[in-house]
Amino acid sequence: MNYGTIKDCDIANGIGVRVSLFVSGCTNHCEKCFQPETWDFSYGEPFTSETESRLLAVLAPDYINGLTVLGGEPFEPENQRTLLPFVQKVRSKLPQKTVWVYSGFTFEELLNPASYAHCEVTEQLLSLVDVLVDGRYVDDLKDISLRFRGSSNQRILDVKASLKEKRAVLCKE
User: What CA–CA distance (Å, rounded) separates 57 from 112?
Assistant: First the structure.
């Protein structure tokens, strides 16, 4: 997996001060995507053990609320396979931090075994996520007044509750 950018101090992509990892590779190709360069799986730098160590170090301070993973598309199957062991390390070493993931795939698509986005690690990766912002960006539904999302079709989901209830459960504001 490659990544395009790491933001060490991000307040736009989740609650509180966060560390954001922008992975490379996306097959959704949303019209008017704000980062079309990240569609290319080769864009940016390789995600290495050194990258993991750097991320764990910048996540450690108390003022950092957690990790946000976006892209590109974190739930591209090849990205999931790399992200799973990394997110497991984050959970193990920094259990007090929250994990947010932005995906163009919906929660329902991710859980559907027949969906392109579903692979052998999807459910395990989802189980480590606190908040999923799901759904493709739709320019006709763009709304700059929305918090943490770009278009009104996108949802901010409580993943733990959603998995428990086996349906999408919105986060309480």
Answer: 35
Q: Which residues contact 29 (CB under 8 A, 6 or more apart)?
A: 36, 39
Mean pLDDT across 7-27: 96
Q: In 29-95, at which residue ranges do the beta strands (DSSP E only) sit?
A: 45-46, 66-71
Which pLDDT value is given to residue 44? 97
Is residue 156 within 8 Å of 171, Cβ to Cβ? yes
**Which residue is listed with tokens 């864009």?**
43
For tokens 């908040």, name the residue: 131
Among 122, 148, 126, smallest CA distance to 137 is for 148
- Tell me the two tokens of residue 36: 């079309």
**CA atoms lying within 13 Å on the CB side of residue 75:** 30
Please give the model's pTM, rounded to 2 decimal places. Answer: 0.96
